[in-house]
Specification:
about 210 residues, single chain, globular, about 80% helix, mainly alpha
Length: about 210
């Protein structure tokens, strides 16, 4: 609850400042793009199913959409993903990479997986955790955008992320009868990393205030 309240306060401060807001959109875009690349990296060389292609394509589209939203604030801002144009760049770049590594270690230990099988299992559980997070984060952000009467909106992303979560659950059911217990452990890993990221965002905003 504490982190949720902090995030709400952080997002209100960000949306009130066009430069910070542009960096926030750019940061989300970076993370969506990184997620899309991780999904593609998990693909088998030959056996690629339709859902993986769909997810990668939609995550890339989200990255593009968020980047385009920046022009509603100021077309001159955030042209790249360089550190100066992201919020808490080190934590932002560490978050997904660290989640992937930690989940791979967990799955290797629990299922004795390796190679492509480990990559695919990590794709399932990491993507599930990210979609759970997205289902919490984007609606909070959208509500603040509405309250601020911002031209920016993320409604289309919210709808697609809800669909992604349902698709991941369907795949996890087929992966393991005990998937919910394993998913709960992965959620704990993700929460610790996300909380650190929120703390870093808060610290950065306090410095820039």
């Amino acid at each position: 609850m504490k982190q949720f309240i902090m995030l709400d306060s952080i997002l209100k401060s960000i949306v009130d400042d066009n430069v910070l807001h542009a960096k926030w959109l750019n940061t989300l875009s970076y993370m969506e793009n990184a997620g899309a690349k991780k999904i593609s990296a998990s693909e088998h060389k030959e056996h690629v199913n339709l859902i993986i292609l769909k997810h990668a394509a939609e995550e890339h589209r989200h990255a593009y959409y968020l980047k385009k939203q920046i022009s509603k604030l100021d077309e001159a801002l955030c042209k790249t993903y360089t550190n100066a144009e992201l919020l808490s760049p080190n934590h932002t770049k560490y978050y997904l990479h660290a989640l992937d590594i930690s989940v791979c270690r967990y799955l290797k230990s629990e299922f004795n997986l390796s190679g492509y099988d480990l990559k695919f299992a990590a794709y399932l559980f990491v993507t599930y955790a990210i979609e759970v997070r997205a289902d919490e984060l984007y609606p909070v952000y959208q509500a603040i955008l509405v309250e601020a009467k911002s031209k920016v909106n993320v409604k289309s992303i919210i709808l697609e992320e809800e669909g992604h979560l349902e698709e991941m659950i369907n795949q996890l059911v087929g992966f393991s009868d005990d998937w919910e217990n394993h998913a709960a452990e992965v959620i704990k890993i993700e929460k610790a990393l996300f909380d650190n990221w929120v703390e870093a965002l808060n610290a950065e905003l306090l410095i820039s205030a």
